[in-house]
Amino acid sequence: MLRPTRPLCAAALAASAALALAACGSSSSSGTSSSGGSAAGGYGSAAPKTTTTTAAAAPAAASGASTVNLTADPGGALKFNTTTLTAKAGKVTVLMKNPSGSGLPHGIAVTGNGVDKDGATVQPGGTSTDTLTLKPGTYTFYCPVPGHKAAGMKGTLTVT
Hints:
Shape: globular
Number of helices: 2
Structural class: alpha/beta
Number of strands: 8
Order of helices and strands: HHEEEEEEEE
Distance between the termini: 80 Å
Radius of gyration: 22 Å
CATH class of one domain: Mainly Beta
């Protein structure tokens, strides 16, 4: 009976480890993802898509792309840190940070002038982004979690 050489055993072990890791998958987001019940967001059993995203938006390119930032209230109030945003026409990314202390899921959505797009709803500590191509005009940004817009979590985005 032949015995395998040590280099062959080491290669087989390394290949087995690589396959085991590949089977586990990977994730670039840190934090957790969950769908909440009525205590977390007031949306009952039909929870909206919930994701945690921590990657920041790419810097604005020379082609006129821009990023506007806002933050959900860190104390849990249903409001953003601002009710007005401005951006240049073209590709606009609205980036909303949901602070760890907010205690509630939040997201960002933009509507107006034929646009109606929601970013992901994220748990505390996450970041929701909404990237759109906008013409000059006035738009409404808001939190798409049921009840949050009606409670005042909204504002005006002016595009010039």
